[in-house]
Write a structure and sequence with these properties.
Layout: E1 10-13, E2 32-43, E3 49-59, E4 64-75, E5 81-89, E6 102-103, E7 108-117, E8 126-136, E9 150-154, E10 158-165, E11 168-173, E12 184-189, E13 195-198, H1 208-214, H2 219-223, E14 236-239, E15 245-248, E16 256-259, E17 267-272, E18 277-282, E19 291-296, E20 317-318, E21 324-331, E22 334-341, E23 347-352, E24 364-367, E25 373-381, E26 384-391, E27 396-402, E28 413-417, E29 423-428, E30 434-439, H3 440-443
Antiparallel strand pairs: 1-2, 2-3, 3-7, 4-5, 4-6, 4-8, 5-7, 9-30, 10-11, 11-12, 12-13, 14-15, 15-16, 17-18, 18-19, 20-21, 21-22, 22-23, 24-25, 25-26, 26-27, 28-29, 29-30
Length: about 450
């Protein structure tokens, strides 16, 4: 059911694209090449169908290019110009990249051009994509020394990771908002480093009958349903067309309402906990406060509603039982990280600090065999991104390592702990996206071998 990297688009035709440069930017002539172009259609916010040309822009030169704009000329079978378009490089979600984005030599980036036809019902025969850009000096390639204990698995936009066992994980590439069947999946073995493409094993369970049963027959609402087949529960979880969160059996039967009255806020994801418990988190854009609730796929509500919980400046990191969460906020004039009781709404200050923001990974809370409590936290400090740990016994925050992570206001990152707690998987989307594995035996664990 995968529908392409940008998700939610219907391919209505594939055409041969000729890519040339306009005379206004002769330095890019023959250097920027549009490939793998598809003509697609989607609905806008008003329900109108718009047509798009989307593909991949490749820099086949020794220079970098910035301020990239792509123009399009649309022709019918008689070679008559029937429309025009303009577009830009985009990420996997179709969002335009920041203005200072520079396409380096040999690199490629997805693009998206909105087409405007002079006569809406006219058939498109071909589209000519015309890049305009400003040449700039290529970034200097510096062979940085490898980071001890950190392995790069992928340099693509990795937005989902599922640990299968201590040595095996699968990861999804694409748009973080897309349902899992619209991601490209790979499996990776930590021990031998082998990575290979796979079909997600739960994709075959998403049948027409299931989609009908869940009421997700509209492709747009299906792709924004966050439909999940969790590893810690037999029941599935999703949101419907008015954002009500519902769980059901894998065939769509025996639905249970988790929370409703959520149409005013935007679901951004689920954090899964043992025994089918989870935290759902909501915000609209980077910089906004995060609202959240905890519950179980069996239908049990653990916390109060999203409107009762104290908003967080970061994505909350829940405890295994879902009764508390590490949040960041300003409480009684103190800004920092707190352990928040999501049932009784009491707060325990962990440490004072400026919050990382909702585009950074949620803290990972865990309890060791000796019932000692720790939290892994990713925070920016002095122009670097650090992996830190907080020890609830010593009340100390320690730094483990500097991370190869560059979150910005447009993109975000996530992390997941392996079942044996030996490895952290760190993922990010955007032009600096990727997947990295952090060996905690080499880096030092919370409470052991950390540098204060």
């Amino acid at each position: 059911m995968r529908r392409g990297m940008l998700g939610g688009l219907a391919v209505i035709g594939l055409t041969v694209i000729v890519s040339v440069a306009q005379e206004a930017t002769p330095e890019s002539e023959g250097s920027l090449v549009a490939q793998n172009v598809e003509i697609t259609a989607e609905r806008d916010l008003f329900g109108q169908v718009i047509r798009l040309a989307q593909g991949e822009l490749i820099n086949d030169s020794d220079s970098a290019f910035t301020a990239i704009t792509l123009f399009a000329e649309v022709y019918n079978a008689d070679e008559v110009l029937i429309g025009e378009g303009v577009g830009y490089p985009v990420d996997a979600c179709g969002a335009g990249l920041l203005p200072d984005f520079a396409l380096q030599p040999g690199d490629s980036q997805a693009f998206r051009v909105t087409l405007e036809l002079y006569e809406p019902e006219t058939d498109i025969d071909r589209v000519e994509v015309i890049p305009e850009a400003e040449a700039t000096e290529a970034a200097e390639t510096v062979s940085a020394p490898p980071l001890v204990g950190i392995t790069t698995v992928s340099e693509q936009e990795v937005v989902s990771v599922e640990w299968l066992d201590d040595e095996t994980l699968r990861f999804g590439i694409g748009c973080y908002q897309d349902v899992f069947t619209n991601l490209s999946w790979n499996q990776h073995n930590v021990d031998d480093g082998e990575t290979f493409p796979i079909d997600h094993p739960s994709a075959g369970l998403v049948t027409d009958a299931l989609i009908q049963q869940l009421g997700l027959t509209d492709p747009y609402f299906y792709n924004r349903s966050f439909l999940t087949f969790p590893l810690t529960s037999r029941r599935i979880l999703y949101q419907d067309d008015i954002n009500t969160v519902i769980s059901a059996e894998p065939d769509g039967s025996f639905k249970r309402l988790i929370w409703d009255n959520l149409s005013r806020i935007s679901l951004q994801g689920f954090t899964w906990l043992p025994e089918g418990r989870f935290l759902a988190y909501y915000f609209g854009a980077s910089g906004e406060d995060v609202r959240y609730f905890t519950a179980s796929a069996e239908g049990q509500r653990i916390s109060g509603s999203v409107y009762d919980s104290l908003p967080s400046r970061i994505i909350p990191g829940p405890t295994p039982d879902g009764a508390r969460a590490v949040i960041a906020a300003t409480i009684d004039g103190v800004t920092g990280y707190f352990l928040q009781d999501v049932i009784f709404q009491s707060s325990e200050l962990m440490f004072e600090a400026e919050p990382a923001g909702n585009n950074y990974p949620a803290p990972l809370y865990w309890v060791d065999e000796g019932d000692q409590r720790y939290v892994y936290i990713v925070r920016p400090e002095d122009d670097a991104t650090l992996l830190q740990c907080y020890d609830f016994q010593s009340l100390q925050l320690s730094t483990l390592t500097t991370l190869p992570l560059q979150p910005d206001l447009q993109h975000r990152a996530w992390m997941w702990l392996s079942p044996d707690r030996d490895t952290l998987a760190l993922a990010a989307n955007g032009s600096n996206g990727g997947l990295w594995l952090l060996d905690l035996n080499e880096l030092g664990r919370c409470g052991v071998g950390a540098v204060g």
